[in-house]
Structure formats: structure tokens, C-alpha cells
Amino acid sequence: MLPSFLDRKAKGKPFLQRPEIFASDVWDNEDSLASPTSSESSFDEDDVNRRITPFWPKYRSILRARGFCLETVKDVKKYYGQQSKAALGFGWDSPYYSRQSDFQDDDALCPDAGIPDNLFRGVRLSDSKRVVVKAVHFKSREYSVICELSRPPLSDDPMNHSIPVLDLFELADDDIAFIVMEEWSSQLVTNSGLCCLGLFLSSMRQCIEHIVFMHKHRITHLDISLRNLLTDYQGRCAYIDYELSRRFENSSKALVYNYRGTELPPECEKEGGIDPYKVDVWALAVLILRACKLTGFWVPELMHVIDPMLKEDPNRRPSAFTALQIFDKVTKSLGFHLQPVCTSPH
Q1: pTM above 0.85, yes or no
Q2: Rounded to an integer, what distance in angstroms lies between the CA atom of residue 299 and that of residue 174?
Q3: Is 162 exposed, middle or buried (0-12, 13-18, 19+ CB in 10 A)?
Q4: Distance of alpha carbon 91 from alpha carbon 83, whole angstroms
Q5: Locate the Protein kinase domain: which residues (predicted)?
């Protein structure tokens, strides 16, 4: 039986609503979520960590010179023109697209109204691979963490399940940096559903393994949730959104204050600093529970993994590494030898 808190409602909306077909809501982190303050911070970081709104046309040629094209009106028309009107029930000229009526020039940039202003869809010119470009302050925590995760040696580690980053660059004169990521889907369950239990368990293992990897390098995610998890539909899952993430020095005691992520553990109700690693462990347990409910794959034995991670006292929660060990023991006892890609016949 799933814990009752999964059926509560937050901010007027039920948890685990099935994602929309365009799955753009994954990028929609609320501006009201306050960034945590770490015990190692020595200055006010609000300015460099706030969400920015770039004037995208200014950077269009720079991105093109680096091999990426921001999405234009022509691109969007072509994309939806290729969709079946019978399946979608509308075409480009329908009222659904009335918001695009102001664009008379096919070469004009066409921002997606369904994602925040600091994100822009596009393609890589060399192979038409779809990408998402994210603009951040070049001194932001997110840019620092992404740079570390997306460059050798960390990028070469098989435990690293961060969204693949195709390019990173900064323009210091504008206080801005750009992160060019592969475009994956937030719709973890397609209309036909996940193909098998083994693939689901493999996905959950990747979720735990990535947090083990981050904690090993003294990085905490601090906003682990289903909305920050993507899939490539080839057996791989990836984390996004490191806006709240923190990196701690070996000599520092890891604490965060005034934490306001998506999943709030009980200790957030108390005054003082809290352990960010145990915050991640709590949120990871909630992610697994929500994924079970969303997909319909409920394995009672997984509670041996989840229960300790949800202890009210953070000091009694296991580390992410211990949680992974328990997960591997449980899945092995069930006869699963997990693979990153499903090999079962269907």
C-alpha cells in the first residue's frame, strides 16, 4: 500500500497528473521557490542565482556559429505540419496557434510559451538533433555545477546520469552563460506505458545511482522530483535543473538554511541548518514512490529500500550509497539483473 501523503494535494493540484503530450511543464519551476543558503556562503547570492530573461535574438548568431539554431516560426510550422491532424485534432491555422499570429516572418524566432523565458528550443545544425538552450548567470551555482558534471572526468563516469550537455559557454560582458542540452522527454510513461518492470527498476536504479555519484563529489541536488527527471525512451533517465544544487568543500560542514525545494522533509519545519544530503535521500524516496504510482509498477519489496529513507529523523536515514546497496539486494532477490536498455521480447 502506498503512503497516504502521495494522495494529498499541493498548491491546489493533484500529484502525479499524467504529463501533457508536449511535456513542457518539466521546465516550469516556480519562481516562488526560494534558493537555499549554505553554511559556506560568504556573500549574497540572490543576484547571480535568480532566473534571467535574455533577449534571445541578440545571441542567435553566436549560437549558430557554435552549431546550434534556435527554433523559428518556419521550424514550428514544419514540425506541426508533419503531425497527423487526425491524431492531434488541429493544424497550424487552427485557433490553438492564434498566439503565433503576430509572427509574419518565417525566420523570426518562435519561443515556446509553455516553458520559462530562460529556455529556448532548437536544433543542432550538424544532425538536426533537438536541443534545449538554457540561459543562466555565468556566476550562478547551476552553471558551476553543470560545468563540473559535464566535463571530464565526471562526464565520463557511468554513474553520472545528468542530462547530456552538448555545449557550454559564457559571455562575461553580459553576465550570462548558455547550457545547450539534448532534448529528452518528461513524459516517463507513454500512451502505451513502460514496456516492462525490469526497465522501470533499471530507471529507478539510475535515479539512485546519480545521487550517489553527486554525493561522492560533495554535490547535492536539492530539488529531486519527477518534474526534474527526463527519459530518452531508450532505457536512460537523466536529471535536470540544478538551480538549487550546492557543492561543498571537504572541510565544510554541509548545511542549508531556509530550504524550499519540491519535496520538503520534516526537518524543514524546524529552525536552523539541515543536512542537504539527507534532504536528497528523503526526496529520492518520494520520487520512487511517485514513479511507482505513476507507472503502476508497485513492488512491495521496494519498501525495504524506501522506508528507511523516509525516517523522520534525518540522522536515521541511510546514505544514498547505502540505499543503492539495499536496492540492488532487493532487486537481485527478485531475480532481476538490471540492464540500461530493455532486452525482453514484446
Answers
A1: no
A2: 51
A3: buried
A4: 8
A5: 82-346
> How many residues does the structure list for the chain?
346
C-alpha 335: how far from chain center? 30
Radius of gyration of the chain (CA): 21
Q: Is 193 helix (H, G, I), strand (E, B) or coil?
A: coil
- Residue ranges and CATH numbers for the domains of the chain are 4-43+185-333 (1.10.510.10), 47-182 (3.30.200.20)
Measure the CA angle with vertex 331, ends 327 and 332; round to 5°: 115
334 in Cβ contact with 205 (< 8 Å): no
Helix (H, G, I), strand (E, B) or coil at 208: helix
> Residues 92-116: pLDDT tens digits?
554 444 455 455 688 999 999 889 9
User: How far is it, in rounded angstroms, from Cα 316 to Cα 309?
Assistant: 8
**Residue-by-residue DSSP string for 91-132:** -TTSGGGGGGTT---TTSB---TTS-TTEEEEEETTT--EEE
Q: Which helix (H) or strand (E) holds 278?
A: helix 276-295
Q: Which of 1, 3, 14 is nearest to 311 (CA)?
A: 3
Provide CB contacts within 8 A for 83, sequence distance 6+. none
**Residue 165: which H helix or E strand, with range?**
strand 165-171
Q: 148 and 219 in contact (C-beta within 8 Å)?
A: yes
Between CA 204 and CA 216 the distance in angstroms is: 19
Fill in the amino acid letter for 211: I
For 58-93, what is each residue's pLDDT tens digit?
Answer: 999 999 999 999 999 998 888 777 664 545 555 555
Sequence-distant (≥ 6) Cβ neighbours of residue 156 within 8 angstroms? none
DSSP letter at 83 equals S
